[in-house]
Amino acid sequence: MLIRILIGIALFMWVLMAPLPYRLSLMQSDGMQTHEAEIAKQEFFARKAVDKTAMLPLSDRKRKDALRQYAQVEWQKQNYGEATKVYRALLANSKPDTKRYDEEFAQDERAMANLSRDQNDFVNAKSYFQSAFTYDKNLLAKDDPRLARDLNNLGLQTYIEATSRDDKTEREKLMQESNHYFEDAITIYAKDPKLENALATVLDNQYLVLRDLGEKDRALAVKAKSEAIEKRIPRLCQTP
Q1: CA–CA dist 85, 149 (Å, integer)
Q2: How far is CA 202 from CA 136, 147, 161, 229, in A?
Q3: For residue 133, what is the DSSP state?
Q4: What is the pLDDT of residues 161-172, one digit of tens each?
Q5: Exposure string (b/e) for 104-141, b if CB count within 10 Å is 16 or more?
Q6: Alpha-carbon distance 84 to 54, whole Å?
Q7: What is the DSSP letter of 99?
Q8: Is the C-alpha dihedral spanning 69, 71, 72, 76 positive or negative?
Q9: So what's the pLDDT on residue 98?
């Protein structure tokens, strides 16, 4: 018994005296293993759900939910090809109602847009964001905040695309296009005080565009508006 106690004390002292970087690396390694184990567990149950619903048609809700869950896990693993394949299948088999809004269809289109962006496929990313916006615009009220969300997505995607261009003229053209999307999103969000957090996010994005366009005064004015909102409503993401 005494030997076990002495061994335990020795191990404890070794941990305390070990160099801090080494102890941190052990903690980080343990954290990574825990995260990987959690992802592996999620993938196991996601695959199980997919197999369980394999005989159901793709139009069945249980089947679609199982596939979306599986695609999300593969996305987390950065297995973009598999996640993309699932969402493409879901969209290919979707027949959205032209009179009744289908939230799931719109979500799948945005998922494909974000997946494309994660793979630096800017053309498809913008195409899916534009498609989602067009669908929403045809079925939602003109001041619906979901339209502002779509416009912000388009503005951000166009800005990312602009920063990847070397040609100055082409880059500036895309920056101006991005700014127009943000302006339209701001117009919608500004109508509802309850949406100030979302408004501040778009203002932050617009600030980046105006800054890169060299419009310093306008950029600072936009930044001031965002900071004023932050003083009233603290946010996790602050103005850059």
Answers
A1: 25
A2: 19, 13, 17, 12
A3: H
A4: 999 999 999 999
A5: ebbebbbbbbbbbbeeebbeebbbbbbbbbebbeebee
A6: 19
A7: S
A8: positive
A9: 81
In a domain, 181, yes or no: yes
What was the pLDDT predicted at 8? 47
pTM of the model: 0.80
Task: Indicate whether 6 belongs to any domain.
Answer: no
Evaluate if residue 152 carries a pLDDT over 90: yes
What whole-number distance in Å separates Cα of residue 81 and Cα of residue 75? 9
Q: Has residue 190 been placed in a domain?
A: yes
Residue 111 lies in a domain: no
Helix axes 61-76, 20-52, angle to 10 degrees: 160
Range of the domain at 206: 141-240
Burial class, 144, CB count within 10 angstroms (exposed 0-12 / middle 13-18 / buried 19+): middle
* Phi then psi dihedrals of residue 110, to 5 deg: -70, -35
The total number of structural domains in the chain stands at: 1
Q: Other C-beta atoms within 10 Å of 69: how many?
A: 18
